[in-house]
Design goal:
This protein has 14 helices and no strands. By secondary structure, the protein is mainly α.
Length: about 325
């Protein structure tokens, strides 16, 4: 388990401000195509970061450990700062004012359903979505956008943002371990939620699954097709999420079993041919991300590795390609 007191110290020591960046750097010359794409990426990034902040605020409410609540408070501050920086980056690169930029409609539709619904979902499901989003953002999207922009302004901003996101991922994995633990399962059994609460949770999950695929497609997968054409970093992010599911306690959880059953169905020839599109829609990810992205040896390692080791492996993936 993560040393929460030490992590809180790191969170407080790692705070910074948007004005700490040198905004006087001149953007590199870009084609119209690149300028429009980059400005839109940063408009969407601001929305993603604020969505993450709302989710961390919800986790703060659920946390019973006072130190963990303080850590989540720093994460809320981090995400708002990232959103502000993304907005300023969008203005910084908007040299020719080719068009007005706004958050992608798919993100606008998904965000309220997710933020509203997350309070009715079991904490472990909410945390899986948060962890998956952080992996996509940190391992794949931010680094690929930075490489695509390829100038000093982006590099200095993304360096600081990535440093914050590394702390977030460490705690995400800590929470996965906690929610999968036998002790937490005993707490859940003692709670005995009402039939109405269960129904609200199921309805929230249906709405999230319905809006997830358009959101992830428009805001993550389509941009990644441009900034990471081979899909290497995207596969690395999904691989780390799949490896989490190889932990025995995680694999026992109902939502993990549901996702893995969808994945198993897709990995059969009849399932892929007859139901590939439907299974992709249900899981909310492209079909190519439903295949097993890990080897048998990696699965065996993940099953016995500590959650700290899995988190470190995810963080190392940021710099592997």
């Amino acid at each position: 388990m993560v040393d929460l007191d030490r992590m809180l110290e790191k969170c407080r020591a790692g705070q910074w401000k948007a004005d700490d960046l040198d905004w006087s750097v001149t953007p590199r010359p870009m084609s119209r195509y690149d300028e429009v794409a980059i400005c839109q990426y940063f408009a969407d990034m601001a929305g993603i970061e604020r969505l993450a902040g709302a989710l961390f605020a919800e986790q703060r409410k659920r946390a019973t450990d006072p130190t963990l609540r303080k850590i989540f408070s720093t994460f809320v501050v981090d995400e708002e700062r990232h959103a502000v920086v993304a907005e300023r980056l969008g203005r910084h690169y908007d040299v020719h004012h080719y068009q007005a930029y706004r958050m992608n409609p798919a993100l606008e539709r998904f965000a309220p359903h997710f933020v509203d619904g997350i309070q009715y979902l079991p904490a472990e499901i909410a945390n899986i979505y948060i962890t998956g989003g952080e992996l996509l953002l940190d391992v794949a999207l931010l680094r690929s956008i930075d490489d695509y922009v390829d100038d000093e302004m982006s590099r200095q901003a993304m360096h600081r943002i990535n440093r914050d996101e590394s702390r977030h991922i460490a705690i995400d994995y800590h929470m996965v371990e906690y929610y999968a633990s036998p002790a937490y399962q005993s707490e859940l059994r003692a709670q005995r939620p009402s039939a109405r609460a269960i129904a609200r949770g199921m309805w929230a999950l249906v709405n999230i699954l319905y809006y997830a695929k358009p959101f992830f497609t428009r805001v993550f997968f389509e941009p990644m097709a441009r900034v990471d054409p081979g899909g290497t970093r995207l596969r690395e992010a999904f691989k780390r999420l799949q490896l989490l599911g190889q932990k025995p306690d995680v694999a026992k959880r109902p939502f993990t079993r549901f996702i893995q059953s969808v994945q198993a169905a897709y990995n059969t020839r009849p399932g892929k041919i007859a139901f590939g599109s439907l299974l992709s829609r249900v899981a909310g990810v492209p079909e190519e991300m439903l295949i097993n992205l890990f080897t048998d040896e990696e699965a065996a390692w993940a099953a016995t590795a500590s959650y700290e080791a899995l988190a470190e492996d995810a963080l190392q993936a940021k710099y592997a390609n």
